[in-house]
Design brief:
tRNA-uridine aminocarboxypropyltransferase, 6 strands, S-adenosyl-L-methionine, alpha/beta, Alpha/beta knot, single chain
């Protein structure tokens, strides 16, 4: 018989994270496009980010038929948060002579699956790209980063909001994430964690 789960944070009821999830406002809009393989992942950080932000939404799929409608919001400057040769630092967007708030579109999945989302959705790939510079190192101690500067989706959103919404601080979004990581480490045992992850 499956363990009861919290309908909001999707964690087992005995490990519910809802008490740690903040309720934060932002001018910046966040649209997370999540690959279906991430939905049932034990560390679904995008879901935690959207729960903690009032101006955020999450869509799941590979091909987003309604993407053009979602992106057509003239009240926002829409940008794709994804690295690339033509990506400009997020700090440049802050300096633009445009008073409209930014809407960040954030693909959620492994690097390979995130690239697939861009490939399958040309309107997504066509968006102006922005990237993070000088972001803090990842707190994701359970997974070896595939490249320098890699962050979980939640960490990337927090870092981006801290640039766009300065001096506001969005690190409160990391509290359930840290608890989730600590819980995973406790479940595997300190010795196993040290043996397999501290290298």
């Amino acid at each position: 018989m499956p363990r009861p789960r919290c309908p909001r944070c999707k964690r087992p009821a005995s490990h519910c994270l809802c008490a740690l999830i903040p309720d934060l406002a932002s001018r910046t809009g966040i649209l997370v496009l999540q690959h279906p393989d991430e939905v049932d992942h034990a560390l679904n950080t995008a879901h935690l980010a959207v729960l903690g932000l009032r101006n955020a939404e999450l869509r799941v799929g590979e091909v987003f038929e309604d993407l053009a409608g979602w992106l057509a919001q003239p009240d926002y400057r829409t940008r794709l948060l994804f690295p690339g040769e033509d990506a400009c630092p997020l700090s440049v967007v802050v300096e633009e002579d445009d008073s409209r708030p930014v809407r960040l579109v954030v693909p959620d999945g492994t690097w390979r699956k995130a690239r697939k989302l861009l490939h399958l959705n040309p309107a997504l790939a066509a968006l102006p790209r922005v990237t993070l510079t000088d972001a803090p190192p990842s707190r994701y101690r359970l997974r070896k980063a595939p490249m320098e500067g890699s962050l979980s989706t939640l960490e990337a959103i927090v870092a981006a909001l801290n640039v766009l919404e300065a001096p506001a601080d969005y690190r409160a979004l990391l509290r359930p994430f840290d608890a989730l990581i600590d819980g995973q480490i406790a479940a595997m045992g300190e010795e196993t964690f040290k043996r397999n992850h501290l290298r």
